[in-house]
Write a structure and sequence with these properties.
The protein starts with 8 loop residues before the first helix and ends in a 5-residue tail after the last helix. It has eight helices and no strands. Helix 4 (about 55-75) runs parallel beside helix 7 and helix 5 (about 85-90) runs parallel beside helix 8 (about 120-130). Helix content is about 60%, strand content about 0%. The protein is an all-alpha fold. The model has no long low-confidence stretch (mean pLDDT about 90).
Length: about 140
């Protein structure tokens, strides 16, 4: 799928969420705000927040997998890597990956080259790999 990084999730989904009540938790307010920002302006930790809340997955997962794929070589060489984004992505439900087999294959190939990933993320990677069929 071609991603228009200049558009917001609200534009891509074709629906605007109403403003949250004033006394709403900071997480909810933040998610609402992030939905109104162009995809290309979202930082990895912001993508992790949205993905972790299962918001905008058809658009955000391909973008997140691309970021993970592009930063994996630097991580393997001892560079920075965003564990939060990886965690958010690999912990999505298996049926989501079954519906996106090409994306699942890309993520599987990418996580195979990662080294030095924290223990809690390694466990989630193993669960992701076990849950996603080999054909996926």
């Amino acid at each position: 799928m071609s991603l228009d990084r200049g558009r917001t999730l609200e534009e891509l989904e074709g629906r605007r969420w109403p403003d949250p009540p004033v006394d709403t938790a900071a997480l909810v307010r933040n998610v609402h705000e992030l939905r109104r920002r162009p995809l290309g302006t979202l930082e990895p930790h912001e993508l992790a927040r949205l993905i972790g809340q299962d918001v905008g997955l058809p658009w955000l997962l391909p973008l997140a997998v691309e970021i993970i794929r592009n930063t994996a070589p630097q991580q393997a060489e001892g560079g920075w890597f965003d564990d939060d984004l990886l965690y958010a992505v690999v912990t999505r439900k298996p049926d989501l990956w079954a519906a996106a087999p090409e994306l699942a294959r890309e993520l599987k190939a990418t996580v195979a080259v990662l080294t030095g990933v924290s223990r809690y993320v390694r466990q989630e990677i193993a669960a992701f790999l076990a849950a996603v069929p080999e054909s996926g």
